[in-house]
Amino acid sequence: MKTRNREQKGSVERFGDYWYLRYADWRIENGERVRKQNLTHKLAPVLREHQRLKRPPKYIEELQREFMKGVNSSRSAPQMCSTIEQFVDAAWLPFIEAHRASSTVTVYRYYWTHVLKPYVGNYLLRDFTTAQAEATLNEIGRLNPTMRKATLHKLRSMLSAIFKRGIGLGYRTGANPCREITLPNGLPSEPTYAYSLAEIRQMLNLIQHESTRVIIALAGYAGLSRSEIQGLCWEAYDADNGEIAVLSGVVNGKRGEPKTEARKATVPLIQSTRDLLDRYRADLGNPTSGVMFATGVGTPLDLHNVFCDRIDPILNACEECGESKAAHRGKDDHEYRRRSHIVAWHGWHGFRRGLASNLNELGVLDLTIQRILRHASVLTTRHSYIKIRDHNVTAGMAQLEAEIRKAETVQ
pTM of whole model > 0.90? Predict the structure, then answer.
């Protein structure tokens, strides 16, 4: 006997000032699909002109049909009953780990766990709407008034990527609900910093620890990022040709691929950097393999610890006693005052931006700087890495004035 394939319609009821849809649906619990009865879905508020109605008007019935279309479509597709949290844990994060650099995965995991999941984790991926997505981001922005606009853009991009993958795997149908979102206003991004050649030279003169000086030279004169330096091995160094190959990166102790395919390339080293690297290598007994900057147990150094242990005590020493800021906690004899004539620390990425800006000041073409920094697009180099310093702006206007005066004299 043939089984009747009957679709569920659900029933609309009025509770207070809202129309609700009552229906049955499947849910995933402990890996099993479980049938749930008497579920409710808020459809819309009761309009003033419909206050006396007991039965729903036509537009509510249309909302009912649209919602139940999604419910009925999941009868033969158990995965469509997954919540967003279940989908992210089971499918999206494993996909990201397999296709993105470890640094990107770390950022995504943080924002998912601490920001997005508390707001959207319990929604069904199948039923999440554009209105809910926009309301979520507005609520996050309202509760985090110091959040940057760039962070809100990142959150929207993450949500969009989650739903794009969900659609591709058949967890939901229809358009991506994040496509038409209007983001709330966030604070503008903080200005980023680029170390000048003079500041890099001063650091190299002040810091005596040998491997730290090599690390600073590789960051400031070769443009290697924090994760790339942590991932360097001696096999990547070609001493004869003065080149170093970026083959991997290390983030939170985990080795992975470089951030993009373009970043996996060979970088030429200037002579001063080669000299520092060769001396450091000779002191280690001229190794030909293994981690270049290793801890006592052979694991890659964490450059955050390098800063805390070897850089911060020198760059941020007190002007009066020479102690670090941390050492001043609990002291009453004098206040901590940093030595103002010493270069200030602006993070490891300031070296990479510094190389781009310093090359630009020297007249190197943007496309060449892009190749040196191994960016996939020259627009990234121009917009995010090359910093035009104030004295160059003044000098540029002086050149303009001189050209105008020359033209006036000729006339």
Answer: no
